[in-house]
Amino acid sequence: MSRKKQHRFEHNIVADNVIERGKELYTSIKGKWNEVFFKNSNPITVELACGKGEYTVGLSKQFPNVNFIGVDIKGDRIARGSKKAMDLNLSNVAFLRTGIQYLDEFFEPEEIGEIWLVHPDPQPRDKEEKRRLTNQKFLDIYKIYLKNEGIFHLKTDSEFLFDYSLEVIKSDPDFELLDYTDDLYNSDLKEGHFDIVTHYEKLFNEKGATIHYLKAKLIKKAS
Predict the structure, then answer these.
(1) Is residue 1 pLDDT above 90, yes or no?
(2) 16 part of the active site
(3) Distance, first Cα to last Cα, the chain
(4) How far out from the chain centre does Cα 3 lie?
(5) CATH, domain 3-218, list 3.20.20.140, 3.40.50.300, 3.40.50.150, 3.30.300.90
(6) pTM value > 0.85
(7) pLDDT tier for residue 179 given thresholds of 50, 70 and 90
(8) Partner residues linked to 216 by β-bridges
(9) Reported confidence tier of residue 202, pLDDT bands at 50, 70, 90
(10) What is the spatial distance between Cα 148 and Cα 110, in angstroms, rounded to a whole number?
């Protein structure tokens, strides 16, 4: 392990805005994010597979009356977002180190107002479909924790994942597709992204990649 990575893990241990295994809140935060962590009643937005937390931090600056939680399994990644949030004195940001499949251990049903997926791994091979974060299995999980009329966002450079996700959402009667575009930065929808660009998106842009985006609303809770 590199010295920089070790320092990031050490940061997570002491950072108040990071919740990970070994910390008290890791086993007691479920359903109590606003009461115990944020100490307010503001709506909650979650960025899944948040990486370095560029969207979590960027959106939290734009919406101080919304609580943001970045979720990722990689501790060295979320440490960067945590440090950035601390440097900016953002009190409406938290980072949770866990896998998406364990959301049930940290959130109560209908605790989340919005979910963001920003440049997730497209998992393009057929045998990888079960790992795509927009497959029906994962959408059904998101339905549990999203409030009624909660919002789901997907931003991706992968045309394959975008087309796949569009079809899955269009075929799901519990979601209403609100907006989508094949070219985010040449559409009016770009204004809702506040020029937030992730590390990987910078690399995609350098290669001339087109960025795709969709927004859907949960209109009926899964039975």
Answers:
(1) no
(2) no
(3) 46
(4) 28
(5) 3.40.50.150
(6) yes
(7) very high
(8) 152, 177
(9) confident
(10) 7
Percent of the chain scoring above 70 in pLDDT: 98
Q: Phi and psi for 122 in degrees, rounded to 5?
A: -70, -15
The encoded tokens of residue 205 equal 């842009």
Q: Which residue has the tokens 């770009």?
A: 190
CA gyration radius, the chain: 17
Asked whether the beta carbons of 101 and 131 are under 8 A apart, the reply is: no
Show the CA angle centred on residue 216, arms to residues 213 and 217, nearest 5°.
155
pLDDT, tens digit, for every residue of 48-88? 999 999 999 999 999 999 999 999 999 999 999 999 999 99
Tell me the domain boundaries of the chain: 3-218
Query: With contact defined as beta carbons under 8 Å apart, do 116 and 45 qualify?
Result: yes
Comparing CA positions, the residue from 193, 221, 220 lying closest to residue 211 is: 193
Residue 157 has pLDDT above 90, yes or no: yes
Q: What is the pLDDT of residues 87-111, one digit of tens each?
A: 999 999 999 999 999 999 999 999 9
Alpha-carbon distance 146 to 193, whole Å? Answer: 21
Distances (CA, A) of 64 to 25, 45, 88, 91, 107: 23, 12, 12, 8, 21
3-state class (DSSP) for residue 17: coil
Three-state secondary structure call for residue 219: coil
| Cα–chain center distance at 11 | 21
**Per annotation, catalytic residue among 121, 140, 163, 183:** 121
Phi then psi for residue 115, to 5 deg, are -125, 135
